[in-house]
Every structure is written in structure tokens, then in C-alpha cells.
Amino acid sequence: MGLFTDAYDLFCIPPIMRLIGRIYYSEKDYEVPVGVSSPMVALALLGTVIGKLVFGRLGDLFGRRRVYGLALMLMVVSSVGCGFSICTTQQCVLVSLGFFRFLLGVGIGGDYPLSATIMSEFANKRTRGAFIAAVFSMQGLGILMSSGVTMVVCSIFNAVQHPKDTITPKEADMVWRLILMIGAIPAAMTFYWRMMMPETARYTALVEQNVLQAAKNMEKVLDVSLSQIAEDVEFPPNPPPQYPLLSREFFRRHGRDLFSCAASWFLVDIVFYSTNLVQSLINDKFLPPRKDVNAYEDAFAVAKFQALVAVASTIPGYWATVFFIDRIGRVKIQMMGFLFMGLALFASIAAYLHDKSKISFLILYGLTFFFSNFGPNTTTFIVPAELFPARFRSTCHGISGAFGKVGAIIGSVGFLSISHKNQEDKNSDAKMAGALAFLGGVCMLGMIITYLFTRETMGRSLEENEKEDEDEDETQERCFLRIRRRSNSVREVSLSPI
């Protein structure tokens, strides 16, 4: 539900910007200037960079569960704040909306490393990839819900609009606020569930060194009483090696993994968030002319197209990963995704230049989304939650994700500017083709980095993954906690061999 809310809040903004353009930029043909839309997009993404770094570190210092609720409350408050953006003048509304979108991004950024870490530490090695991918796949449903809510709200207001021929009804200023505030509802509902969630046994045993409490937490997960749980605890004779985050010893042990995770996430987000590059083309070819529809119909058309893309490519891509991630492996899926994204982008150059209907271009555009989600967009969320020690796990996931969102800022803001300039440029086709070729090259670079640096984590426990490069005689953070159900059949849960 956290990732569902994240996607709703991030992807409801395109139709909302159409409504804001209708209300506040009638003198500019209802188009929000790129100097306004770019900062609005960048502020939310900048917030996610900060949120990933801050909440990721706090999750390792104070526990996943405690910080998890704090990130969610920030999302609830900022979602409501976006709807109540102060006053109704153009400048004041946009400044207020940008401020609350930044705070919302901080909360969303905090949700990423904590959700991935919690799921990885609760799951077993045989199905861990599918469970984390299923968490991430809720983004697809969040995108679909944001589009559905937008279409429903716009349809209702359009049906009761009076007079019917008004291009920009005054109630439209209420519509975009309502759509944003609805995003607070699933987040608020999730807060209770998060507070009832126990701290992960791995964090409790390996970081807090409280094995008895870890057993109690597992009691809740396994739904057995503590009297039915037998503990076998074995600590290493020497304390685990203590080296600080980002120290020389840290980089010796985990530097390669951190580089591969951060670089792959950075590259895929450049491509994934560069969809603004083709947004103007899509709007011109597949959406009705803005002069022929009112504000509600305009926003409805954008949301409808977004929903169709989600159903046809985004959601199937997510669930293909859920099904295959523990069969094929993370590295193969990530390499395959980068490869086919690149091929689709290279092929789209010919489709863009030679297909006047742009139907083939739209199909290739959808394939790029499919192989992004059945590929690096999902695996870059999974792998950082599996490679690092418990006391650094959410921190390193946050660092990797922060690099990804820097790539997202480059992809969304940079290419939004290119797309805007292309509208009035005689050489726009050549520039668009060059930009698509550049994105294809980014995908090929991502495939190479994955092949050279990313380690496979499928079928291995979290503790096995983090001990990959250690000497045999070195001690590692390890604590064996076996939990047995006393019955005819024995159920055994062990923190180390899981």
C-alpha cells in the first residue's frame, strides 16, 4: 500500500498540470510554461533523493518499523497540503504546491528503502524476489488508480457543469485539489497496519542483538505462541567486525555492490523518466486538440491515455518480473530489460521518422515501458535489499535509490526542456532521433555495467550474500535463531540459512 500511494502521488501530476494550465495560463494557450512545469517535477524528485538518504539511514539506526510510520505520516500531511495550496493567485498557488510536493517527495523517498528492506528481511530465499517485486508492482496499480480517480472526478464535475459550454469552469480549481487529497486516503489507512507490524527479526537479532525479542517478533509472523517456540542461539566467539559506513573497509567489502546498484538505478531512471521527451508528440497525435474540449475533458484524455499505457505495458511488465524473478534470476532479467529497452528505443527512431501515423512509434513506446518493468526498473529496487549487511541495508538501498532519482531529474527535466524546444524547431525530428539514440545508448551502458559488476542473489540467503567476499576465518554478523513448531511435523526458521 505504501508503494501504491507513492505511484498515485507521483503520476497524478500530468493531468493536474493540464488543469492548472487551463486555470492559470489562459493567455498562453492553456500551456504551463516549461519554466514552471520543470521545477514542479524536479521538486518532488529532489524530495525523494533527500527522503531516500535520510530515512534509509534512520531505518538502520532506529529500526525499520519506527521510521516506516514516520515516512507515511509525512506523505499523508503533504498530500492534504497539496490540495490546500494557499490562496488562489497563480504565483502563490504554484509556490505552495511546489513546497508540499517537495515534502511529499521526501516521504515517498523514505518509503522505498524501508519497504524493500522490510520485505527482504521477512521473506525466505526461495520466494524473496517475488515478494519484493510484488511490493514494487503495486506502483502499476497506483498509476492506474490515479488515472481512474482523475477520470471519475472529471466526469462527475463535467456532468454537473453549468453552463455546459464553459471551457474552463471555476470549479476546475477544486478538481485538481481534490484529486491530490484523495491520495492521502490509502496512506492514512495503511498507517494502522504499519504500526501493528513487528520489527523484523533480522534487525532485532543482528543489529540490536536481542534474540529473545526477535523470537517474539517471529511469534507474531508465524502465528504461534512463545511457549511453542524453542530457541537455539549461537553467537560467534568474537564480536562481528565493526567498521563504519563509507569507510575504507566498507568499500573493500561492499563498494562494488554499491556502485553496481547505484549506477544501474541511475541509468534506468534517466530512460524511465524521460517520457516527457515524447509527451508533446503523444499529446498532438493521440489526444484531442485542447481548443476543442473543456478543462475536464482535457484532463480526462490525459488520464485515459496514462491508464491505457499502464494496462497494456506497465502492469504486465511488473507481474512478469514477479513470476520469473526467482526462476531466471535478477542479473539476467536486468540485462535482458536493458537490452530490449535499448532495441525498442533504436527501432523507435525509424518509426518516428517514417511512420506519419505514429502508431508503430506508440507500440515501441509501450514496449520500452514493459521491458523497463520486466527488467531494471524492478530489479534495481530488489537487489540493494539483498546484498548488504543488516546494519547497512536500508542505508545502502537509500543511497542507490538517491542516485536513481538524480537520473530521474536529468531524464524528466532535461528532456522536458528538449521536447518543449522541439515544438518550434525546424530540425526537431533530427533532435528527437538523436535523443532517442542517446537513451538507447544509456540502456546498453546499463546492460554492460550489470554484466560486469552486479552479483546474482537468487537462491541465496541475505547472510550468504553479504559474506560473498569475506575470508573463511573472519567472523561475520551472524546469529542462529531456530524457531520450531512442536507438532508431528517440524517447522524451522533460521536467520542464517533462510
TrEMBL record:
Source superkingdom: Eukaryota
Membrane topology: Multi-pass membrane protein
GO cellular component: membrane
Residue intervals of the Major facilitator superfamily (MFS) profile domain: 1-458
Transmembrane spans: 36-55, 67-86, 98-119, 131-159, 174-193, 302-325, 337-353, 359-382, 402-420, 432-453
GO biological process: phosphate ion transport
Sequence similarity: Belongs to the major facilitator superfamily. Phosphate:H(+) symporter (TC 2.A.1.9) family.
GO molecular function: symporter activity
Alphabetized PANTHER family for the sequence: SOLUTE CARRIER FAMILY 22 MEMBER
Organism: Actinidia chinensis var. chinensis (Chinese soft-hair kiwi)
Compartments it resides in: Membrane
Reactions this protein catalyses: phosphate(in) + H(+)(in) = phosphate(out) + H(+)(out)
Keywords for the protein's UniProt record, in alphabetical order: Membrane, Phosphate transport, Symport, Transmembrane, Transmembrane helix, Transport
The protein's name in its UniProt record: Inorganic phosphate transporter 1-9 like
Keyword Mitochondrion annotated: no
Keyword set includes Transport: yes
